[in-house]
Design a protein that fits this description.
single chain, D-amino Acid Aminotransferase, Chain A, domain 1, D-amino Acid Aminotransferase, Chain A, domain 2, binds 2-OXO-4-methylpentanoic acid
C-alpha cells in the first residue's frame, strides 16, 4: 500500500487564526486516515476533510485500551518554509509503543510522507509567532468489534493537525508543580515509556487534585518506593544542581521525550555536565536547603521548555529562582525555538522540510 487518495476541501475564505490559540482546541481542514487488517496490512490511505467517525459499541480499544499516539510539531520558518522537528524519532517511538501494546507497526517512511502531504495541504494553518506551531497528532487504535480480551485484529491510524500556542495557562511563565505520593502513574516494566492513553488516564485524578490546590501539574515519583522523581504529567524534568544537570534516567516508566533527548545534546554541546541518573525528591530538597539548587525546568513537545517556579512536596514549598524563569531555561527555549523557525542552522539533522504544493484534484 503506497498510494494515498485525496479529497480536498475547497476553502473560499482566508484562514484567520485567533490571537490566543491555547492548546489543541482548533483543528485544520483535513486529516490522514488508513486502516489495517492482518490480511491486507495497511490499506485505504486517504487525506480528506476532517470528519467524525462512527464506531461499533464493541470497538475493542474503548474497552481494553489499545490506543497509542504521538505529538510533534511543524513550523513556518522566518523565510516562509515549512519544517517538522524530528518526525523520524517520533515515528520510531510510536512503533515502540505499538510493539508493547501488540499493535501493528507503521512503515516509517510512508507515514512521514503522509504527514508531509497533510501538512503541505493545511499549511495555511501554521501559526508564525515564536512558541506557536502546528501540532501534529498521529494516533492508532484497535477497531475490531470484539469483547474477548485479546489484541484487536484490525486497526485505524489517523493524523490530525492543530495550530497551538503555549500548553500551560501560564503561557511560557514558570509553572507550579506538586510532587505527590498519593498516586502513581506507572511503574517499571509497565507501560510508562509508551505514549498510550492509559498513562494519561492514570494521571488525571492527581492532576485535578493538584489544580484544586493551585498547582499547574504533578511531578510523579517512582511507582515502587515513591522516592525517585520521574516526570511531570506532560513533560520530562531537569534539575540544575550547582555542579551538574540531572534528568531522571529512562528506567522504563518514563516517557523518552524527544525534547528531553534534544536538550541533553544541546546542554552537552554547551559544555554542561548532564547526567541521566536516579534522583530522589530528598536530594532535590537537600540541594534547595544548602543552596546548590540552581533551577528546575521541564521539557516536552507541547511544553517546549517550561521553568518550574515552585516545586512543592509534602509541607515543603521550594520557590526556585524567586519564581522566575531561569537564565538557562530561557537560553534553551530560545535555542530550540530558533531551530524550530529556522533562525538557527540545524546542525543536528533534526529538521525535515515539507515541500509546499498546489493542490489540484
Ligand atoms: C506532547 O508534549 O506532545 C504531549 O504529548 C503532552 C501532552 C499534550 C499529552
Amino acid at each position: 500500500m503506497k498510494n494515498i487518495s485525496y479529497q480536498i476541501k475547497q476553502r473560499n475564505e482566508k484562514i484567520t487564526l485567533p490571537e490566543k490559540l491555547g492548546f489543541g482546541v482548533y483543528f485544520t481542514d483535513h486529516m490522514f486516515e488508513m486502516d489495517y487488517s492482518p490480511e491486507k496490512g495497511w490499506y485505504n490511505a486517504s487525506i480528506h476533510p476532517i470528519n467524525n467517525f462512527c464506531l461499533h459499541p464493541a470497538t475493542s480499544f474503548i474497552h481494553y485500551g489499545q490506543s497509542i499516539f504521538e505529538g510533534l510539531k511543524a513550523f513556518k520558518t522566518v523565510d516562509n518554509q515549512i519544517q517538522i522537528f524530528r518526525p523520524d524519532v517520533h515515528i520510531e517511538r510510536m512503533n515502540n509503543s505499538a510493539r508493547r501494546l501488540c499493535m501493528p507497526e507503521l512503515d516509517s517512511e510512508f507515514v512521514l510522507e503522509a504527514m508531509k502531504e497533510l501538512i503541505a495541504i493545511d499549511s495555511d494553518w501554521i501559526p508564525t509567532k515564536r512558541g506557536e506551531a502546528l501540532y501534529i497528532r498521529p494516533f492508532m487504535f484497535g477497531k475490531e468489534p470484539v469483547l474477548g480480551v485479546r489484541p484487536s485484529r484490525d486497526y485505524k491510524f489517523i493524523i490530525i493537525l492543530s495550530p497551538v500556542g503555549a500548553y500551560y495557562p501560564e503561557g511560557f511563565e514558570p509553572v507550579r508543580i506538586l510532587a505527590q505520593d498519593k498516586y502513581v502513574r506507572t511503574f517499571r516494566k509497565g507501560m510508562g515509556e509508551c505514549k498510550t492513553s492509559a498513562n494519561y488516564a492514570a494521571s488525571l485524578l492527581a492532576a485535578e487534585e493538584a489544580k484544586e490546590l493551585g498547582f499547574t501539574q504533578v511531578l510523579w515519583l517512582d511507582g515502587v518506593e515513591q522516592k525517585y522523581i520521574e516526570e511531570v504529567g506532560t513533560m520530562n524534568i531537569f534539575i540544575h544542581f550547582k555542579d551538574e544537570i540531572v534528568t531522571p534516567k529512562l528506567t522504563g516508566s518514563i516517557l523518552p521525550g524527544v525534547t528531553r533527548r534534544s536538550v541533553i545534546q544541546i546542554l552537552s554541546e554547551w559544555g554542561f555536565k548532564v547526567n541521566e541518573r536516579l534522583v530522589s525528591i530528598q536530594e532535590v530538597m537537600d540541594a534547595y536547603d544548602n543552596g546548590t539548587l540552581v533551577g528546575v525546568f521541564g521539557t516536552g513537545t507541547a511544553a517546549i521548555i517550561s521553568s518550574i517556579g515552585l516545586l512543592s512536596y509534602k509541607d515543603k514549598n521550594m520557590v526556585i529562582n524567586n519564581g522566575e524563569a531561569g537564565e538557562l531555561d530561557l537560553k534553551l527555549f530560545n535555542e530550540l525555538t530558533s531551530i524550530h523557525i529556522g533562525e538557527k542552522e540545524d546542525t543536528h539533522n533534526w529538521i525535515f522540510k515539507v515541500e509546499k504544493k498546489e493542490i489540484l484534484v
